[in-house]
């Protein structure tokens, strides 16, 4: 096992513990008091799903102009409906930074208890999020980070770097030391830090098994851009063994371009984890062999955490009595072997 592989294994274990903690925080069955080996009685966080103080939460996110973002908002609303003590106020999705700032200002004026905010631009929303925190409102930052730690109580993140590592590790395993293998990458928007992190992790993982990215193009997270980028890639690379496409929404266009090319000598790994890609993986009749999850549950997790924070509760499986400052979700690889585990929470492209 290489140093990097060992490090990833430890990281995966830690993230797994965090995931278990999130699940435990909403257990419907309160745990009984337990006696430790020192004789001290310790009461676990109990009944976190039981109704408590009414919590008014404002939610704002970018426009649902692609499947993943639409799933974020849908899952957030569905999660809030599970709790009779949650009053969710949903602002209309927008890619206009100034409008999103005004939405947060409205939540402040309404004196909500918490704001779950997926900013269109984290840097641009930092000041108004800080203002909300200074007004005594609990802010949960989702997916795109603010520039200041004072702008949010807790941040819920996917793992962009981990996505690249997971995709690269899977490709290494499938190519089994084939040192002359040609690996291609279809990235998202290159100017975004999230794309840069995904590419960095991918490059590092490939290097660990002696491979590299031989051909790379960038798209824009849309079907049209995915088809155009994939067409250009296929024309430039007469031989390919594996392709990693960063985003399953743009992947609809990527797969259309591959179908039009008639080429079948490679396999494809997706990114984000859409339901249509998972169904293709499950069928076994597609060049798509895997996808790497970028959870569309982050807003829903934000609702749970906001509720716990306002009600002064904690995560049941942690000794720490406060909700963590940062919760980073894992980026697992979905294959035919485990697809049924992930398909129920997948989004539609």
From TrEMBL:
<feature type="signal peptide">
    <location>
        <begin position="1"/>
        <end position="23"/>
    </location>
</feature>
<keyword id="KW-0732">Signal</keyword>
<protein>
    <submittedName>
        <fullName>Substrate-binding domain-containing protein</fullName>
    </submittedName>
</protein>
<dbReference type="Pfam" id="PF13407">
    <property type="entry name" value="Peripla_BP_4"/>
</dbReference>
<dbReference type="InterPro" id="IPR028082">
    <property type="entry name" value="Peripla_BP_I"/>
</dbReference>
<comment type="similarity">
    <text>Belongs to the bacterial solute-binding protein 2 family.</text>
</comment>
<feature type="compositionally biased region" description="Low complexity">
    <location>
        <begin position="30"/>
        <end position="40"/>
    </location>
</feature>
<feature type="region of interest" description="Disordered">
    <location>
        <begin position="30"/>
        <end position="51"/>
    </location>
</feature>
<dbReference type="InterPro" id="IPR025997">
    <property type="entry name" value="SBP_2_dom"/>
</dbReference>
<feature type="domain" description="Periplasmic binding protein">
    <location>
        <begin position="57"/>
        <end position="313"/>
    </location>
</feature>
